[in-house]
Amino acid sequence: KVIEKLYDMGIKPRKSKKGTWANSTLRTMLRNTAYVGKARWNSSVSTVAKNPHKTEKYRRQKKTSKKILPKEEWQFVDIPQSIDSELFNRAQEQLTSNFKNCSRNKVNNYLVGNLIYCPCGERRRGSGVNKDRKNLYYRCN
């Protein structure tokens, strides 16, 4: 729906040659803390690739890979805020919920999959027992 609204408003993506919005672009924007006034830097370091694709003897750049540093080492700079932090937090919660409930890698459709809990506190997941998948059960993780 966000993509449809962007098209309706006439907002085009900055780098797309076809002029179409990609889900990954929106996902990256929604996770970027710069919109709530916290720009990060020093979150990654350039390193030499472990398995380089090209085995040339003379390369200008040796460090062609990136290594993400631990979050404790990241540094944040205060910048002007674009959106409210409450809206940003709600978007993060929705992204987390969408990821937990996505239909990727599911063989069967379970009505209440990932929504019910076992008495031990873990989530229950669907489990097909028969080859014909007629008897579907919920089991503890």
Descriptive account of the structure:
By secondary structure, the protein is an alpha+beta fold. The protein is built from three helices and six strands. The strands form three sheets. A two-stranded antiparallel ribbon has the order 1-4. The chain is extended and about 60 Å long.
Sequence stretches where pLDDT stays below 50 over 5 or more residues: none
Alpha carbon gyration radius: 22 Å
How are strands sequenced across the largest beta sheet? Answer: 1-4
Number of helices: 3
**What is the 3D form?**
extended
Q: Based on the structure, what is the oligomeric state of the protein chains?
A: single chain
Q: Can you summarize the main beta sheet?
A: 2 strands, antiparallel
Keywords, separated by commas or semicolons:
141 residues, alpha+beta, two-stranded antiparallel sheet, 3 helices
SSE layout and pairings?
Layout: H1 2-9, H2 23-31, E1 38-41, E2 44-47, E3 65-68, E4 75-78, H3 85-100, E5 124-128, E6 136-140
Antiparallel strand pairs: 1-4, 2-3, 5-6
The gist of it:
The chain has helices spanning 2-9, 23-31, 85-100; strands at residues 38-41, 44-47, 65-68, 75-78, 124-128, 136-140. The protein is α+β, with helices and mostly antiparallel strands and 141 residues long.
